[in-house]
Specification:
Elements lengths: L1 H25 L39 H14 L1 H6 L1 H32 L11 H34 L1 H6 L2 H21 L6 H11 L8 H16 L7 H13 L10 H10 L20
Helix pairs in contact: 1-9, 4-5, 4-8, 5-7, 7-9
Protein backbone atom coordinates (compact mmCIF):
# COMPACT_ATOMS: atom_id res chain seq x y z
CA UNK A 1 0.00 0.00 0.00
CA UNK A 2 2.80 2.42 0.87
CA UNK A 3 4.57 1.84 -2.43
CA UNK A 4 1.32 2.38 -4.32
CA UNK A 5 0.78 5.63 -2.41
CA UNK A 6 4.32 6.82 -3.27
CA UNK A 7 3.82 5.94 -6.94
CA UNK A 8 0.45 7.69 -7.25
CA UNK A 9 1.51 10.72 -5.23
CA UNK A 10 4.68 11.29 -7.27
CA UNK A 11 2.82 10.94 -10.59
CA UNK A 12 0.04 13.31 -9.47
CA UNK A 13 2.54 15.89 -8.23
CA UNK A 14 4.57 15.59 -11.44
CA UNK A 15 1.49 16.21 -13.60
CA UNK A 16 0.06 18.87 -11.27
CA UNK A 17 3.25 20.91 -10.89
CA UNK A 18 3.98 20.65 -14.62
CA UNK A 19 0.46 21.89 -15.44
CA UNK A 20 0.84 24.76 -12.96
CA UNK A 21 4.13 25.78 -14.56
CA UNK A 22 2.53 25.72 -17.99
CA UNK A 23 -0.26 27.94 -16.65
CA UNK A 24 2.30 30.37 -15.23
CA UNK A 25 4.12 30.51 -18.58
CA UNK A 26 0.85 31.11 -20.42
CA UNK A 27 -0.09 34.01 -18.12
CA UNK A 28 3.24 35.80 -18.38
CA UNK A 29 3.24 39.29 -19.90
CA UNK A 30 4.49 40.03 -23.40
CA UNK A 31 8.09 38.91 -23.75
CA UNK A 32 10.96 40.83 -25.26
CA UNK A 33 10.40 39.51 -28.77
CA UNK A 34 13.56 38.17 -30.42
CA UNK A 35 12.37 36.58 -33.66
CA UNK A 36 14.97 34.46 -35.43
CA UNK A 37 14.30 34.21 -39.15
CA UNK A 38 13.24 32.27 -41.05
CA UNK A 39 10.17 31.79 -38.87
CA UNK A 40 8.83 28.28 -39.69
CA UNK A 41 5.17 29.27 -39.71
CA UNK A 42 5.61 31.91 -42.44
CA UNK A 43 4.64 30.63 -45.87
CA UNK A 44 6.88 31.55 -48.80
CA UNK A 45 9.93 32.52 -46.72
CA UNK A 46 11.41 29.08 -45.98
CA UNK A 47 14.68 30.20 -47.61
CA UNK A 48 15.04 33.08 -45.14
CA UNK A 49 13.75 36.61 -44.94
CA UNK A 50 10.40 37.72 -43.61
CA UNK A 51 6.91 38.81 -44.51
CA UNK A 52 7.86 42.27 -43.25
CA UNK A 53 10.27 42.71 -46.15
CA UNK A 54 7.34 42.87 -48.53
CA UNK A 55 6.29 46.28 -49.84
CA UNK A 56 3.16 47.47 -47.99
CA UNK A 57 3.15 44.28 -45.95
CA UNK A 58 0.39 45.64 -43.71
CA UNK A 59 -2.02 45.64 -46.62
CA UNK A 60 -1.37 41.99 -47.52
CA UNK A 61 -2.66 38.82 -45.82
CA UNK A 62 -0.15 37.27 -43.42
CA UNK A 63 -0.23 33.56 -44.28
CA UNK A 64 1.00 31.16 -41.64
CA UNK A 65 1.32 27.39 -41.39
CA UNK A 66 1.11 26.03 -37.86
CA UNK A 67 1.78 22.53 -39.20
CA UNK A 68 5.30 23.56 -40.25
CA UNK A 69 5.77 25.23 -36.89
CA UNK A 70 4.78 22.05 -35.05
CA UNK A 71 7.08 19.95 -37.26
CA UNK A 72 10.05 22.21 -36.46
CA UNK A 73 9.16 22.19 -32.77
CA UNK A 74 9.05 18.39 -32.72
CA UNK A 75 12.48 18.24 -34.32
CA UNK A 76 13.81 20.14 -31.31
CA UNK A 77 11.79 18.28 -28.69
CA UNK A 78 12.35 14.76 -30.05
CA UNK A 79 15.84 15.11 -31.53
CA UNK A 80 17.38 18.20 -29.83
CA UNK A 81 18.11 19.63 -33.27
CA UNK A 82 19.80 22.85 -32.09
CA UNK A 83 22.37 20.94 -30.03
CA UNK A 84 22.94 18.56 -32.96
CA UNK A 85 23.63 21.47 -35.30
CA UNK A 86 25.90 23.42 -32.96
CA UNK A 87 27.60 20.94 -30.58
CA UNK A 88 27.59 17.55 -32.27
CA UNK A 89 30.06 15.81 -29.86
CA UNK A 90 27.97 16.82 -26.83
CA UNK A 91 24.73 15.88 -28.60
CA UNK A 92 25.48 12.14 -28.59
CA UNK A 93 25.50 11.90 -24.80
CA UNK A 94 22.66 14.34 -24.25
CA UNK A 95 20.46 12.63 -26.81
CA UNK A 96 21.23 9.20 -25.36
CA UNK A 97 19.87 10.46 -22.03
CA UNK A 98 16.77 12.06 -23.57
CA UNK A 99 16.06 9.12 -25.86
CA UNK A 100 16.41 6.79 -22.87
CA UNK A 101 13.83 8.87 -20.98
CA UNK A 102 11.45 8.73 -23.96
CA UNK A 103 11.80 4.94 -24.11
CA UNK A 104 11.23 4.65 -20.35
CA UNK A 105 8.05 6.71 -20.67
CA UNK A 106 6.83 4.35 -23.41
CA UNK A 107 7.92 1.34 -21.34
CA UNK A 108 5.94 2.58 -18.32
CA UNK A 109 2.80 2.95 -20.43
CA UNK A 110 3.35 -0.55 -21.81
CA UNK A 111 3.79 -1.96 -18.29
CA UNK A 112 0.45 -0.48 -17.30
CA UNK A 113 -1.12 -1.84 -20.49
CA UNK A 114 0.43 -5.24 -19.74
CA UNK A 115 -0.80 -5.18 -16.13
CA UNK A 116 -4.35 -4.27 -17.22
CA UNK A 117 -4.17 -7.07 -19.80
CA UNK A 118 -3.21 -9.59 -17.12
CA UNK A 119 -6.07 -8.41 -14.92
CA UNK A 120 -8.41 -9.10 -17.85
CA UNK A 121 -7.06 -12.57 -18.52
CA UNK A 122 -4.84 -11.69 -21.51
CA UNK A 123 -1.50 -13.50 -21.43
CA UNK A 124 1.47 -11.19 -22.06
CA UNK A 125 4.26 -13.49 -23.22
CA UNK A 126 6.09 -14.87 -26.27
CA UNK A 127 3.62 -17.66 -26.90
CA UNK A 128 0.50 -15.71 -25.96
CA UNK A 129 -2.62 -16.74 -27.91
CA UNK A 130 -3.40 -13.03 -28.09
CA UNK A 131 -1.60 -10.99 -30.74
CA UNK A 132 -2.08 -7.94 -28.51
CA UNK A 133 -0.40 -9.76 -25.62
CA UNK A 134 2.58 -10.67 -27.81
CA UNK A 135 2.85 -7.08 -29.09
CA UNK A 136 2.85 -5.67 -25.55
CA UNK A 137 5.50 -8.21 -24.54
CA UNK A 138 7.96 -7.46 -27.35
CA UNK A 139 7.50 -3.70 -27.19
CA UNK A 140 8.02 -3.79 -23.41
CA UNK A 141 11.30 -5.69 -23.81
CA UNK A 142 12.66 -3.32 -26.48
CA UNK A 143 11.64 -0.06 -24.81
CA UNK A 144 12.59 -1.24 -21.33
CA UNK A 145 16.08 -2.48 -22.17
CA UNK A 146 16.94 0.46 -24.43
CA UNK A 147 15.39 3.01 -22.11
CA UNK A 148 17.12 1.97 -18.91
CA UNK A 149 20.47 1.39 -20.66
CA UNK A 150 20.49 4.71 -22.56
CA UNK A 151 19.26 6.82 -19.63
CA UNK A 152 21.82 5.29 -17.25
CA UNK A 153 24.75 5.51 -19.65
CA UNK A 154 23.77 8.95 -20.89
CA UNK A 155 23.45 10.49 -17.43
CA UNK A 156 26.61 8.77 -16.16
CA UNK A 157 28.79 9.86 -19.08
CA UNK A 158 27.35 13.39 -18.97
CA UNK A 159 28.52 13.66 -15.36
CA UNK A 160 32.00 12.54 -16.38
CA UNK A 161 32.00 14.87 -19.39
CA UNK A 162 31.11 17.84 -17.21
CA UNK A 163 33.72 16.88 -14.63
CA UNK A 164 36.63 16.49 -17.03
CA UNK A 165 35.80 18.87 -19.88
CA UNK A 166 37.66 22.09 -19.05
CA UNK A 167 35.06 24.37 -20.62
CA UNK A 168 31.93 22.61 -19.37
CA UNK A 169 33.36 22.30 -15.86
CA UNK A 170 33.48 26.09 -15.51
CA UNK A 171 29.78 26.46 -16.23
CA UNK A 172 28.40 23.37 -14.48
CA UNK A 173 26.64 24.13 -11.20
CA UNK A 174 26.22 21.71 -8.27
CA UNK A 175 22.52 21.50 -9.14
CA UNK A 176 23.34 20.19 -12.62
CA UNK A 177 25.53 17.45 -11.12
CA UNK A 178 22.72 16.58 -8.71
CA UNK A 179 20.16 16.43 -11.54
CA UNK A 180 22.27 14.00 -13.56
CA UNK A 181 23.24 11.90 -10.55
CA UNK A 182 19.59 11.59 -9.52
CA UNK A 183 18.70 10.21 -12.96
CA UNK A 184 21.78 7.97 -12.84
CA UNK A 185 20.73 6.62 -9.42
CA UNK A 186 17.24 5.86 -10.74
CA UNK A 187 18.80 4.07 -13.72
CA UNK A 188 21.24 2.00 -11.64
CA UNK A 189 18.57 0.91 -9.14
CA UNK A 190 16.35 0.10 -12.13
CA UNK A 191 19.03 -2.16 -13.59
CA UNK A 192 19.51 -3.87 -10.22
CA UNK A 193 15.74 -4.28 -9.82
CA UNK A 194 14.75 -5.48 -13.29
CA UNK A 195 18.07 -6.72 -14.72
CA UNK A 196 17.51 -10.37 -13.78
CA UNK A 197 14.22 -10.52 -15.72
CA UNK A 198 14.51 -8.71 -19.05
CA UNK A 199 11.17 -10.15 -20.11
CA UNK A 200 9.78 -7.82 -17.40
CA UNK A 201 7.21 -10.33 -16.11
CA UNK A 202 8.10 -9.25 -12.56
CA UNK A 203 7.79 -5.57 -13.53
CA UNK A 204 4.26 -6.20 -14.86
CA UNK A 205 3.33 -8.05 -11.67
CA UNK A 206 4.63 -5.18 -9.53
CA UNK A 207 2.74 -2.69 -11.73
CA UNK A 208 -0.42 -4.79 -11.39
CA UNK A 209 -0.06 -4.75 -7.60
CA UNK A 210 0.60 -1.00 -7.57
CA UNK A 211 -2.42 -0.03 -9.67
CA UNK A 212 -4.74 -2.31 -7.66
CA UNK A 213 -3.27 -1.30 -4.27
CA UNK A 214 -2.54 -4.96 -3.57
CA UNK A 215 0.00 -5.50 -0.75
CA UNK A 216 3.03 -7.51 -1.84
CA UNK A 217 6.45 -8.41 -0.51
CA UNK A 218 9.05 -6.09 -2.07
CA UNK A 219 12.83 -6.54 -1.81
CA UNK A 220 14.86 -3.61 -0.52
CA UNK A 221 16.24 -2.65 -3.92
CA UNK A 222 12.70 -2.34 -5.37
CA UNK A 223 11.62 -0.13 -2.48
CA UNK A 224 14.71 2.04 -2.97
CA UNK A 225 14.09 2.24 -6.72
CA UNK A 226 10.45 3.32 -6.32
CA UNK A 227 11.41 5.93 -3.72
CA UNK A 228 14.19 7.38 -5.93
CA UNK A 229 11.91 7.46 -8.99
CA UNK A 230 9.19 9.09 -6.88
CA UNK A 231 11.59 11.77 -5.64
CA UNK A 232 12.79 12.33 -9.19
CA UNK A 233 9.25 12.76 -10.55
CA UNK A 234 8.44 15.35 -7.87
CA UNK A 235 11.77 17.15 -8.24
CA UNK A 236 11.92 17.41 -12.05
CA UNK A 237 9.07 19.93 -12.52
CA UNK A 238 10.43 22.26 -9.81
CA UNK A 239 14.00 22.19 -11.15
CA UNK A 240 15.60 23.48 -14.34
CA UNK A 241 14.84 20.09 -15.87
CA UNK A 242 11.30 21.38 -16.30
CA UNK A 243 12.35 22.88 -19.63
CA UNK A 244 10.02 20.33 -21.23
CA UNK A 245 7.20 22.63 -20.05
CA UNK A 246 8.76 25.81 -21.39
CA UNK A 247 9.84 24.51 -24.81
CA UNK A 248 6.50 25.26 -26.46
CA UNK A 249 6.39 28.80 -25.07
CA UNK A 250 10.04 29.42 -25.91
CA UNK A 251 9.53 28.59 -29.56
CA UNK A 252 5.91 29.54 -30.21
CA UNK A 253 5.70 32.78 -28.23
CA UNK A 254 9.30 34.00 -28.06
CA UNK A 255 11.43 32.91 -31.02
CA UNK A 256 8.69 32.54 -33.63
CA UNK A 257 5.95 34.97 -32.61
CA UNK A 258 6.22 37.71 -35.21
CA UNK A 259 2.56 38.71 -35.28
CA UNK A 260 2.35 42.39 -36.29
CA UNK A 261 1.45 45.02 -33.70
CA UNK A 262 -1.51 46.55 -35.50
CA UNK A 263 -4.34 48.62 -34.10
CA UNK A 264 -7.12 46.56 -32.61
CA UNK A 265 -5.13 43.32 -32.45
CA UNK A 266 -4.38 41.14 -29.43
CA UNK A 267 -0.70 42.11 -29.73
CA UNK A 268 -1.62 45.78 -29.26
CA UNK A 269 -3.47 44.92 -26.05
CA UNK A 270 -0.50 42.92 -24.78
CA UNK A 271 1.86 45.81 -25.53
CA UNK A 272 -0.37 48.27 -23.67
CA UNK A 273 -0.56 45.92 -20.71
CA UNK A 274 3.22 45.37 -20.71
CA UNK A 275 3.93 49.14 -20.72
CA UNK A 276 1.79 49.53 -17.59
CA UNK A 277 4.12 47.36 -15.50
CA UNK A 278 6.50 49.10 -13.12
CA UNK A 279 9.65 47.60 -11.60
CA UNK A 280 9.22 46.20 -8.11
CA UNK A 281 12.89 45.50 -7.34
CA UNK A 282 15.85 47.81 -6.88
CA UNK A 283 18.07 48.55 -9.86
CA UNK A 284 21.33 50.48 -9.93
CA UNK A 285 21.34 51.37 -13.64
CA UNK A 286 20.74 55.11 -14.18
CA UNK A 287 18.14 54.58 -16.94
CA UNK A 288 15.75 52.62 -14.70
CA UNK A 289 14.30 54.13 -11.53
CA UNK A 290 12.75 51.42 -9.42
CA UNK A 291 11.93 51.29 -5.70
CA UNK A 292 15.11 51.83 -3.73
CA UNK A 293 17.10 53.04 -6.71
CA UNK A 294 19.36 56.07 -6.15
CA UNK A 295 17.78 59.33 -7.32
Amino acid sequence: MLLSFIAYLSILLFVGISAHKAYQFAKMPLHGRMELYPVPKEKGFEHGGSFYEEISWWSKPHEVSHVREIVEMFKEILFIKTLFDNQRPFWWLSYALHLGIYFIMAWTILLVAGAVSLLNGIVVAVGSPSLFGQLIFYLSVVTGVLGIALATLGSGFLVLRRMFDGTLKKYTTPQEYFNLLLIFAAGVTGILTWGNDLSFHYAREVTMNLITFTPFTAPGILILHIIIVGIMLIYIPISKMSHYVGKYFTFHTVLWDNSPNLKGTAIEQKVKKATSYRPTTSWSAPHIKGPGSPK
